[in-house]
Amino acid sequence: MLAINELHRIAILQLPFRDKIEGTFLTSNLHSKGLFMLLKNRLFTPGPTPLLPAAQNAMAAFTAHHRTADFKALYTRVLADMKDFIGTANDVLVIASSGTGVMEGSVSNLTSPGDRVLVLTAGKFGERWRDLAKAYGCQVDLVERPYGETFSLDEIRAKLTPETRAVYVQATESSTSVRHDVEGIAKLVRANGSDTLFVVDAITGLGTTHLDVDGWGIDVVIGGSQKALMIPPGLAYCAISERAWKRMEATKNPRYYFDFRKERKAAAKGESAFTPATSLFAALGAALDFIRQMGNGDLAAGRKALVDNAELAAEMTRAGVKALGLKLYASSPGAALTAVSSPAGLDSGKIVKEFRESFSAVVANGQGDMKGKLFRIAHIGYYDFIDTVGILAALEHVLAAVTDKSVEYGSAVRAAQEVFAHSRNRELAEVAGVKN
Which residues, 6 or more positions from 268, have their beta carbon under 8 angstroms from its beta carbon? Predict the structure, then answer.
C-alpha cells in the first residue's frame, strides 16, 4: 500500500493548472508574478453545481442494498418529498439517468410516429427537444428565436393547431440564461384543447424559478440532480399528470428502460424498475432535508427560499456585471445563471481561462456557435452571498488582466451590495409590518 505522503503527492500532480509548493496550491499565473495565494476550487457552472456537504456525507456512508427494507423506506420518503419540492400532487419518478434521458422518455412515452408536436427553441437545449422529437418520427413544428431571445405568445398561438399532440419547451434555457414564460405558454396550451400535452424541461428551472406545476397545467416537468438539488449528476426526475399517463396507453413509440409505466408500477411498491443509484438517493434525501430546514421544517417553504436565494444572487450578479460596463446576453434573464456577452473583440475563452488560472473558479463558456461570445456565471443551489460577492470581485481582476481597459475595483461588488442591502431592508420592513 502506498504511504499517505506518496498518495498526497500523486493527487497533487493530477490537479491541473496549479503549482504545488509544500501542499499549498498556487496558480501558475499568480506564482509567476510573485504572488502566493491558497486557492479553493469553486464551481460557478450551471451544472454540475457545488455539492451540499451533508449530501456528500450521506452518499459516502450509504451501503444498503436496493432490495431491502432500509432502501425501500428511503426510496418511498424521497418520492413523497419530491412532490413537495416540485410542488405537485402528481406522481413523481426518479430515475438513474441524466436529464436528457427523461427528456427522451417524455417524447417516446407521449408520442407515436407521425404525431405533430410543437417545439419552442431558442438555444442548445431547445434544439435537443427538436432532435429528440425527430428521432422518434414526430412531425415537428417549430417556433424559433435567436439565441438570447425568448418567444412571443402570438408566435406560439399561431403555430398551435388541433392536431398538436404535445408542446415542448425549457423553463430556463441554460445555454443562454433566458427564462421563458411558462405560465403564459401553459395558458395557450390549455386553450388549445385537452389533446395537447405540455412538457417543460425545468432541469435548470426547478429550484431557481417559481413554477405552479399543477395550477398552470404542466403535464410533465423534468429536473436533474446536479442542479438546485446540490448533489452529483446521475438522477433525473419528473412529475407526470394523469392526462399524460392516459396518453401513454395509446402511444406506439418504442420504449424499454424509459418506460415510465414500469417505473410508476414499481414505485407504488416502494421500488425502482431497474437498479437505482442508491448512494445518490441517500444524497437526495439529505438535500431534501436541508431544503426543508431552509423552510423551518416546511419543504414547500424551503423550496420558495431556495428560489428566492437564486433570484437575489442573480439580481446581484446582473447589477455587478452592468457596473463593469458589460452587457447581459439574455433578453429575459433567469435566476439560474447570468450569461454575459464578451467585450467586443475578446474571445470569452480567455475570460474563462483567467478565472480558472488566477482564482481556480470555474465559469462556463458559451456552447456551440456561442463559444467565445459569452461566459456564464451560475447561482443554482448551494450558492450564497459571499459566493456572489466573491465571483464579482474576481471578475473585476479578470477583466483587468484580459483587456486593455482600466477597471474601477469595487464597482461590481458595490453594485451587488446595494442590491443586497435593498433586499434585506425590504424584508425587514415586511417583517416589521407583519408584527405590527
Answer: none
Three cell numbers at 9?
503527492
CATH assignment of 53-294, among 3.40.640.10, 3.10.450.330, 3.30.450.40, 2.40.37.10: 3.40.640.10
Whether residue 102 contacts residue 258, with contact meaning beta carbons closer than 8 Å, is answered with yes
pLDDT exceeds 50 at position 15: no
3-class SS letters over 112-145? CCCCEEEEEECCHHHHHHHHHHHHCCCEEEEEEC
Q: Residue 32: what pLDDT? A: 55
The model's confidence at residue 404, banded by pLDDT at 50, 70 and 90, is: confident
d(CA 398, CA 392): 10
Q: How far apart are CA 275 and CA 257, in angstroms?
A: 11
**Termini Cα distance of the chain:** 67
CA dist., res. 131 & res. 140, Å (int):
9
Other CB atoms within 10 A of residue 430 CB:
10
Q: Which CATH class is domain 11-49+299-435?
A: alpha beta
pLDDT of residue 34: 56
pLDDT of the residue at 13? 39
Which residue, 45, 44, 55, is CA-closest to 235?
A: 55
Q: Give the predicted TM-score (pTM) of the model.
A: 0.91
Domain ranges of the chain: 11-49+299-435, 53-294
Instruction: Estimate the share of the chain in helix, then strand, then coil, as percent rounded to the nearest 5.
Output: 45, 15, 35
Mean pLDDT confidence for 228-251: 98
Neighbours of 431 (CB within 10 A): 10
Question: Cα(76)–Cα(270) distance, rounded to whole angstroms?
Answer: 5
Could you tell me which of 269, 223, 219, 215 has the C-alpha nearest to residue 248?
A: 219
β pairing state of 164-170 and 197-201: parallel
Q: For the purposes of burial, counting CB atoms within 10 Å of the CB of 107, is it exposed (0-12), middle (13-18) or buried (19 or more)?
A: buried
Confidence of residue 221 (pLDDT cuts 50, 70, 90): very high
Q: Could you read off the pLDDT of 95-113 as tens digits, one per residue? A: 999 999 999 999 999 999 9
R_g of the chain, CA atoms, integer Å: 23
